[in-house]
Design a protein that fits this description.
Elements: E1 4-13, E2 16-26, E3 31-35, H1 42-50, E4 57-62, E5 65-66, E6 77-80, H2 92-96, H3 98-102, H4 107-120, H5 136-148, E7 154-158, H6 166-183, E8 186-191, H7 194-200, E9 203-208, E10 211-216, H8 218-223, H9 228-233, E11 238-246, E12 249-252, E13 255-258, E14 270-275, E15 292-302, E16 306-313, E17 316-323, H10 324-330, E18 337-341, E19 348-351
Helix pairs in contact: 4-5
Length: about 350
């Protein structure tokens, strides 16, 4: 049985449908990310699960208990907001223990729990200080400790890292994931940052226009996108417009390319052929390698560990990521011609 079950959830604001028939299962102890662009419904779904913005219709069950109509205070969750939402007039210790005070626990028990949580998030000596005396990353740790204080069964994170600078965000990303694994708390995080979702989640829920496009493990979402939207939103992707010519061939301009066998498409259908920039093959090409192309190197963008190259061949334009070693070994430079191959198993085909 799933720890959290969402069934046929709808949320409407007047004539606008923010969520349309969303169903989802989350396993106990799982770390799930809701990923998608602004306005796709991911925060609306999180707030419905928390009861902060109840659904128009549909059901939500947590550990077998129907919580669909319960107020937030009657649900078992802790939440961390993007803005931290710490009480500025309370010390760090009082912020962390706020939920325990509301539950009328004894002072000694509260003090012990607060001390444990501050040590857990790496701020053992911060109890007497005030939020204004802490950095953004430290404040977010305090917000996380406060959310965990009541030992909730479900932890909800609403873009908790988006207000932090890149280096702090990277460090906290690993700390939050490690903490979640240690505690085993079921966690749902909302983010629009694909790298954040890919590195932290056990499963990713990709959302678009109030609906779920795909649910899967990070590698599955990245390597086997089920729709053109997922392919485009998660990672960099080349899209080549073409015509479906046969069950295993696509015509792109004057170039005929082999592709994985397709069902549900008829010859003459317009399609979009997709391949990741890092999947364009250059080294050790056999003479009979499928989808071999001779290309001219256009622009080269240095991106640190690799260069992103714009390649042109017979009216076909695509990007490829070349490592620094490959750039040096093959003498890749603007205007140079190269032989490349588009591996069949790395190609995806979508109806246009």
């Amino acid at each position: 049985m799933s720890y959290l079950e969402v069934r046929n959830l709808h949320k409407r604001f007047g004539d606008f449908t923010a969520l349309g028939d969303v169903s989802l299962d989350v396993g106990e102890g799982e770390f799930v990310c809701f990923l998608g662009p602004s306005g796709c419904g991911k925060t609306t779904l999180l707030r419905a699960i928390a009861g902060l913005d109840p659904q128009t219709s549909g059901t939500i069950r947590q550990k077998g208990r129907d919580v669909s109509a319960l107020p937030p205070a009657a649900r078992d969750f802790g939440i961390v907001f993007q803005s931290y939402a710490l009480f500025p007039n309370l010390t760090v210790g009082d912020n962390v223990g706020y939920g325990l005070v509301s539950r009328r626990q004894k002072k000694a028990e509260i003090a012990k729990r607060v001390s444990e949580l501050l040590a857990l998030v790496g701020l053992p000596d911060a109890g007497p200080r005030y939020p204004a005396q802490l950095s953004g990353g430290q404040q977010q740790r305090v917000a996380l400790a406060r959310a965990l204080a009541t030992s909730p069964g479900l932890l909800l994170l609403d873009e908790p890292l988006s207000a932090l600078d890149a280096r702090v965000r990277l460090r906290l990303r690993h700390e939050i994931k490690a903490l979640q694994r240690r505690l085993g708390v079921t966690t749902i995080m909302v983010t629009h940052d694909q790298e954040e979702a890919l590195t932290m989640a056990d499963r990713i829920v990709v959302m678009n226009q109030g609906e779920i496009e795909q649910v899967g493990a990070p590698q599955e979402i990245y390597r086997q996108p089920m729709t053109a939207f997922v392919a485009d939103f998660v990672g960099a992707m080349n899209f080549l417009d073409g015509v479906f010519a046969a069950p295993d061939r696509v015509q792109v301009g004057s170039v005929s390319l082999a592709c994985p066998p397709q069902d549900g498409l008829a010859p003459g259908n317009k399609v979009r052929l997709c391949i990741r920039p890092e999947d364009v093959r250059v080294r050790d090409l056999p003479a009979d390698v499928p989808n071999r192309l001779t290309v001219e190197v256009g622009e080269l963008d240095f991106v640190g560990a690799f260069c992103r190259a714009i390649l042109q061949a017979n009216g076909v334009a695509l990007t490829a990521d070349f490592s620094s070693n490959l750039m040096r070994d093959l003498g890749v430079e603007r205007g140079r011609t190269l032989d490349i191959a588009l591996p069949i198993d790395r190609l995806r085909v979508f109806a246009a």
